Every structure is written in C-alpha cells, then in structure tokens.
Protein 1
Amino acid sequence: MATTYEQSSTTTSSEGIGLDKDYIKTYNGLLKIVECVLDIIAFICASIYIHWGPYGGGWVQFVTMSAFITTLLLFGFHLFRIIYKLPGPWGLIELIYYVLYSLMMLIAGIVCAARGNWDASIGAAAFFTFAATACYVFDTFLLFRGWQQGRSGGGSSHTTTTTTTEHTTYETKTQY
C-alpha cells in the first residue's frame, strides 16, 4: 500500500527596477504622454496673453504646470517600475491625484472659456484645457477600474509566479 503526500507552494515576486518598454504601449502610458503634451500646450497658450494673470490666468498656469510636472513624475515612476517598489497604496494615491486634477482642470477650462473673448490664445488654452480634462477623466476611470479589481498600478502586470510541487511517496508494510 502506498500513500502519496503532495505539498505545493507558490511564490510571487515582482520584477526589479528597470525600463519597462511595454508601459508606453498601454492605455495608461499613452494617456500620460497625451496629458503631458496637452498640459504644456495649454500652459503655453495661457501664458501668451500676460494681462489676464489676475483674472484667472495665474490659476490656469498653476494647474496646467503642476499637472504636467506630477503626471511626468508618475509616468517616470511607471516607466522605470519605481512605483511598484515604493511603500504605500499607490493605486489609491494615483486615483485621488487624478480625481483632483480632473476637477481642477475642469475649473481651469471654465475660467479660460469665460475669458476667451479677450484673446485668441486664451480660447486656445480653453480648448487644450478641456481636452486635457477629458484625458484626465478617462485616465481616472481606468485607474478606478483597476483599483476595484485590486491592481496597485496602472500598468501591465509585473509579477512573476513560481509554483513548486513536491511529491512524497511512503510505502507502508502491514505487520502481522
């Protein structure tokens, strides 16, 4: 008579820090690139007409430039897989960031649209700010869906699973 015991263990480890070329091909990577481009264009358009600074231009410049810098940092964190090594719930932190910047971009777009008749560059800033708002809202939706499914970051999965199975066979003899 033979008795078989089976023991199985699963080890999950994430990859190290390094360049992740596949992140640029994901929706989140492409959205971050588009958001950075739209932010910088909206900032430039809002900066051309210098006389509207006290009437909302400063707010638009602040929102677009701070969104550009933060989005660029998050893009770098994902591109080099740094975000997966940082402590904290980065999926939730990034989600909160995008919710706040979606709202602030919407307000900045409304400010630009209200002052758009002053100069054509303010109207262009309104267009690019609303386009950036749409990108931030879509990215927020993707991050929320990922957060609901339990994914920590917005990129592709970076886990390697190793399964080890061990079989042990014992033969027992019947004694009389």
Protein 2
Amino acid sequence: MPTCNESNMTPATFLLAGIPGLEADGPWTSILFCSLYPIAILGNSLILFVIKTQKNLHQPMYLFLSMLSVTDLGLSVSTLPTMLSVFLFNTREIGIDVCLTQLFFIQTFLFMESSVLLAMAFDRFVAIHHPLRYASTSTSARIGNIGLAIIIRGAGLHIPAVILLKRLPYGRIQPLSYSYCLYPDVMKMACADITPSSFYGLFIVFSSLGLDSVLITLSYIMILQTVLSITSWQERLKALNTCVSHICVTLLFYILPISLSLIQRFKKKTLHQSEILLSYLHLFLTPVLNPIVYSIKTKEIRKRIMKIFQNYSTNRLQWGR
C-alpha cells in the first residue's frame, strides 16, 4: 500500500523496479534487454525500408504492415530510456510528469497496435471474400484515413486517462512494479479514491483490446467460411497462407495483455514474479518477433531482405580487396 501521510504528499517521485528475483543478475539481465532493443529497432526499420523502397509493395497488406512496424518502434523507444537507466545505471527515480508522459506513449502505441491488427484482419477478409472489389475498396487514401483514425483513437483514449492520474495525490516516493510506467501500476500508488480511474482503465481495455479481439475473431470466422466455400484445395491453402503471419502476430499480441490487465486490477496482493516477467516479455518480444514472423512468412519481404544482405556482403568483399 502507498504511504499517504499529508507530510509527504506531492510532488511525487516514483521508484522504478527491476525484475524481482533477478537483481543479483543485473549485468546479465541488462545485456539481455539491451540486445533486444537493437534487434527490434533494426528489424522494424528494415521492414519499413523495404516497403518504402519497393513500389510493388505499396499495397494495402504491406501498408498495414508498415503501420505495425511503426507502432512496434514507438513501443520500443517509449520503454528504452527508463529500462536503460535501471539496468545499466541503476537510476530508479522518475518524476510524475516524466512517468505520465512515458505511460501515455506506451499505452497509446500498445493500443494502436491492437487497432492495426484489427485493420489487417478486415483487410484479409475483404481480400479473400471480395477479391474483385479489393483494389477499388482498399485504396491508399482510405488506408491513410484508417491510419489517422488509429492514431486519434489511441491518443484520444489515453489523454483522459493521463489527466485522471495527474489529478490524483501521491506520496512523495512510491515504488512501482516495473522498469517503466503503466496505467494500472501508477494508479494503485494514488492516495485517494481510484474508482473513476479504475473504471476508465477497464473501459479502455474492453473498448479497445477486448472489442478488437472479438472483431478479429469474427473476421476470421467469416474468412474461414469463405475459404471452406472454395472448391479447390490449392486455392484454400493459398488463401489461408496469406493469413498465417497475421494470425501468429495477433496471438502473440493478445494472449497476455488482456489477462494481465485483469490480474493487475483485481488482484490485491503484490504481483508474482512470473506475472511481472510476462508483462516484460509482452512488451519486448512483440516488437522483436513481429518483423521476424513477417520476414519468414512473407515471400516478397523475405526476398528483398535477403537481397539487401547479399548486396552488403558483396560490397564488403569489394572493399576488402
């Protein structure tokens, strides 16, 4: 429970935490997490570079993939400063304004990724169910408008959340559960009634992650119905193969955050080490694995990336001479 004597009220300072049970392995933990950042940033930047430079990839599926890479980059960059300060420099204090700013960007990019995955699911449905109308339906202008709506939705949901947290009183120094600031974690540190903030947090979860996951499931039910109506097995496999990457990325993204959000809000005891570790894995593995999944399962992306590395190797050999 937070310490809430009137003598030690705001301005608040939060105390970031490492991973419980792994404090003694600080150097090795820092090496692990620090190695994930370059992989995530390089992988997603490479996806964006390939899509931008290849005009034949300026298609709806790849434009949505570029949005996914942008959200993954934003998520990685949002957690980077405090993670490095904790694991490399053991600097754990963070002011409330900085904490709320980081919280806003982490939560916004996280929920934007949910919206992108939903848009990608509907894109796959239209491509499979209405292939002849796909080109006229999924225009670049329409996709741009969808991207703008995703940004407005993500930021718009979390501006009131930050305002609600900012208005709450906090003790002077409050220990958090992670090496970064998350909405339910900061909310529990308040020295006042958090019922409005808690209900609004649940509203965000169910109206975005919850609703998006349901709509994605419905999209794939309709996709499956369409695929089963195709007589040729080869055509069925071809249609389903276009969805494999998205299914893998969607499962990776949705399995943990909804369950963790419910645990964080309704569990009164301190989070177990395993639950905290799962939260870390969700935030860090998703940006790392998404570009890997799409690079392996998407032929055009894979060929272009291999060509980039081949050209790089050839140039190095020439410079060596």
Protein 3
Amino acid sequence: MGAPPGYRPSAWVHLLHQLPRADFQLRPVPSGFAPREREYQQALLLVVALAGLGLGLSLIFIAVYLIRFCCCRPPEPPGAKSPPSGAGCATWSCIAALLVGCAGIGVGFYGNSETSDGVSQLSSALLHANHTLSTTDQLVWETVERLGEAVRAELTTLEEVLAQRTELVAAARGARRQAELVAQQLQGLAFWHEVPLSPLQVAADVSFVEEYRWLAYVLLLLLVLLVCLFTLLGLAKQSKWLVVLMTALSLLVLVLSWGSMGLEAATAVGLSDFCSNPDTYVLNLTQEETGLSSDILSYYFLCNQDVSNPFQQRLTLSQRALANIHSQLQGLEREAVPQFPAAQKPLLSLEETLNVTEGNFHQLVALLHCRGLHKDYGAALRGLCEDALEGLLFLMLFSLLSAGALATALCSLPRAWALFPPRSPSALCSGSHPSELLFPASLEPNNPLHSFPGCWRRLY
C-alpha cells in the first residue's frame, strides 16, 4: 500500500513496534494494531501495570530506607553536637535531585507542547477534509438544482416557442435529455452525502479531549515545579513544617508521575503499532463506519496509479453530455432565433446556466481527485505519528525524571532534617548568614564562631 506523501514511519515507531507484547497470561500477542481485541487490550494494560510495578518498587525502597534510617541508627553519645555522618551529602543529594526534577519539568513542557501540536495538526487535517467533502456535496446539489430549474423553465418555454418546427423541438428535447443525464450522473458524485461519519465531529471530539489532556499535564507540571521549589525553600529556610508538607506532596506527585508514565507508555506503544501500517486499519474502520465501497476509500487513502478513479465514468459521461448540450444550443441559436425571436431569451438563460454548470464541473473534477484528501490524510498521520508520538516520548522522560528525583528527595529529606537546628529562643539569636541556612556552623571549616551560652555570635 502506498504511504501518504511526506510520511514515513520514524525510527521510534519501528523501535516501539518491535517491542514484545504479552497478555495477562504472558502469552505473546501480535504487534498489529487491534484495539478491539481482548488480547491486545491486555497487552497495553500490562504496559500500564509495569509502571505500577515501578511505583510499588519505589515505595517499597523508600519505606525500607526510611525504616532503616529511623530504627537502625546507632545511638548518639550524650552531649554530641556534631550532625549525623553523611548529613551534608544527603542534603546536597536532595538538592541535586530536585534540580534534576526542575530540568525534567522543562522536558515535560516541551513534550506537552509537541503532543498538542501533533493533535492540532490532526484536527486541522480533519477540518480541511471536511471542507473538501462538504464543498463537493454543495457543488453537486447546487448544479443539479440549477439544471433542474433550467429543464423545468427555460427548456419548457423553448419547446413551446418552437412548437411549429418539429426538428427544432426535437433538438430542444435532446438538450433536455442531456441535461437530465448530467444531473443524474452528478448526483452520484456526492458520495459523502448522508454518511454518518463526520470529520467535523471527529475533529471536535479530538480537540475536546486534547484540551483537557493538555490542561491536566500543565497542572501536573506546575505541581511538580511547586513541590521542587518549595522543598528547596524549606531546606534553605530550615522550615520543618514546610519540609513535612512538601514530603507529603512529593509522595502524591510520585504516584501521579508513575501513573502518567504508564498511560504515556501504553499510548506510545499503541500509537507505534498504528503508525507502522495505518492504511489497513483506517480503511477497514472508515468502511465500517461509513458503508462506502472499498474502491472509493482505497482511491482516496492510497492515491496511487494502481487504483483508478471510481467516478471517472460519471465524469466522462457528464462531460460529453455538457458538450452535446452546448452544441445543440448553438445550433438552436443559429436556426431558431432568426425565425422565433422569442426563443432568444430562454436560449441566453440556458447558455448562462451551461457556463455555470461547466465551471462547477471543473471544480468537481479537481475536488474529486485523490490529491486533496490524500494530502489531508498524510498531514493527519504526520501530526499523530511524528509530533504527537515525539511529544509522548518526552512526556515519558519527564515522568521518569520526576519519579526518580522525588524518590531520591524522599530518601534524602530525613537526613537533611537532622541538620535543622532546634527552633528555640536561643537558636534564634544566631546571625542569618547564608552559609548557615543549609549547614550548621560546626560543619563549616575554619569557622570563626565562638559559642556563648544560649547564642551563636560571629566575630566581625
């Protein structure tokens, strides 16, 4: 099958399409896109379950680490004022993890924008295809109605005026038959008339879903950003209540990150299966939804020389009939007008109708060619299989970076907590030097501090 112009499956499509798939019984599942088959649905759900497994392992690791930190620490000797060993390293590890999470947020915003651009390109292609189809139907019915009016009015009047000349009446009736033939042939060109599938409605549904998807990811990205920034602020200000609150939110965002990564991975895998060979699925689905013949759909979706235009015969007959009408009207104008001046007005009106009909016919020939709709089909595939898929991959990277950063932060925060000085009136007497925000004075080398009862003071 011929690929749409400008569309070739990317390397990511091939790579994701080659990944093995299995159902809930771990039996291999073919990688062909079949969203209605139960085994294929289970294979995609298993991809989501892998993200759930990652979440479970992360929570178990965090729980084991915290239990070990809280319950297995050696008792500190009485009067020890030095912070726990490794506390400074844990603080910097937490800060580095949060900075990586902030960098992942930038990746997420880019991926969300790319996905939105791809879906917007799909919606635009659907809207343009709907415009082509609706314009075709409108031209067909406008032309048929104009020809019908000409048959009922001008040709009837012309036959009455030429009633005394049998051969002229026969020529007028011949023009009537040819006009009726053109109208009959043109009616078959409105192939999308009364089809239940509307590209306009599909585009509206896609845009509606994409709007809420985009908004949900923006909120998730902003939530991760706020958690990272306020956790850093809590560490800088040594605010225990802020760190506790951000720890709880970090746990929530960790769950959301793994959940979003499962949805993104399943969507990317399914999209790669679709994009590896989209023609077969789109043809079958469109034929099922519209009831159109496979010849028409193959012509517009494939648009190659092996598939002929299914409307070529109708177009040829219509063109010949229009040429016959034109020659008959010219003959009547030469022979009838000198003898019957009253025939000039209906003949001029028929000539005008014929000119408009020929103009509409040439537009129909251009609209019914496969180039336009096939170009829209290619644009839709490029938006879905290139931009949207690339955006999903960047969103997966964001989710992975976010989950890793938050898991590291959750493990590092308890050790960083040990650096916080007690919030007592004597502790509040210390100078607010920036180096004292993350590290106590005893950790700074060559610290020029003198300890006084109840208060630290710096020598100036």
